[in-house]
Amino acid sequence: MGALDYLSNFCSVNSSSTRHRRRAMQTVEIKVKMDCDGCERRVKSAVDSIRGVRSVEVNRKQSRVVVNGYVDPHKVLKKVKSTGKKAEFWPYIPQHLVYYPHSSQAYDKKAPAGYVRNVPQAFPTVNSSAPEERMMSIFSDDNVNACSVM
What we know:
Keywords: Cadmium, Lipoprotein, Membrane, Metal-binding, Methylation, Prenylation. Helix content is 27%, strand content 19%.
């Protein structure tokens, strides 16, 4: 936005003095169960009709829809649900980012390969590091008191 556009917002002749801020560019990932090409096409056309959408990527194998644009994530989810498909925000994260990928709630058989559910039990507590790291530091060469333990 240029300087003249910025100044013209202050000098407008309209009676309404409310200025609308543009939404920030966002990437919205949604999990949608799609069975055929028709389902994929219906979801894609519904999301494309939302104002502010720049690109839509549909991956039927992963049951994933990625939307880029100046959109509200909840409006995108509502629009996908309006097609009659079961939809939710993408609940998975890459497996290599998680300390405990095989914890009871993180591991999901339905997750795509290399992904686990994003749950707090998969991460160590905030006030302490992972127990494996603490045990390894006891016997580290960098630890001055390591020989007293051995």
